[in-house]
Design goal:
alpha+beta; four-stranded mixed beta sheet; two-stranded antiparallel sheet; rod-shaped
Length: 144
């Protein structure tokens, strides 16, 4: 051990204990500061390459007209093709709550139109005055 320390000092490097429980203990002569820097770089690069999935939200009303509906569906398609999950919410106000099937039917129409590029992650369900579902993209990677 003393000889190893002397050798490391001669080369102006550090003596790093790799496996202390081995018999005899395993040590390595290296520049420890450089090693730590390289490890930090690796973790930073790994974080850079990881894909971040956001949850985008599109809100509608049960009486949304055809053109506005298609406009919202194109937004949903764009979000999904970017690789993001999409939360579709139908908001009910006042007497609209008397016809919850209108909102459910609207979400079912969205599922039908989006079946080529989306899958249903959470089926349509009521949460208070809202009917909510979550769509996720079919393929995991982003398209340019």
């Amino acid at each position: 051990m003393v000889e190893a320390l002397r050798t490391a000092a001669n080369f102006e490097l550090d003596l790093v204990e790799v496996s202390p429980k081995a018999e005899p203990p395993v040590c390595r002569i290296m520049d420890y500061g450089k090693f730590k820097y390289q490890q930090q770089k690796k973790t930073h690069d790994a974080k850079k390459k990881q894909a971040v999935v956001h949850l985008k939200e599109v809100k509608m009303r049960p009486k949304t007209e055809a053109h506005d509906f298609q406009f919202k569906v194109r937004h949903i398609e764009r979000f999904l093709k970017e690789g993001n999950k999409t939360k579709v919410t139908v908001v009910f106000r006042g007497r609209e709550l008397a016809h919850p099937e209108m909102g459910r039917n609207m979400l079912i129409r969205i599922i039908e139109e989006a079946k080529e590029w989306a899958k249903v992650e959470q089926d349509p369900k009521f949460e208070g005055r809202n009917c909510v579902m979550i769509l996720s993209p079919l393929q995991a990677q982003k398209q340019p």
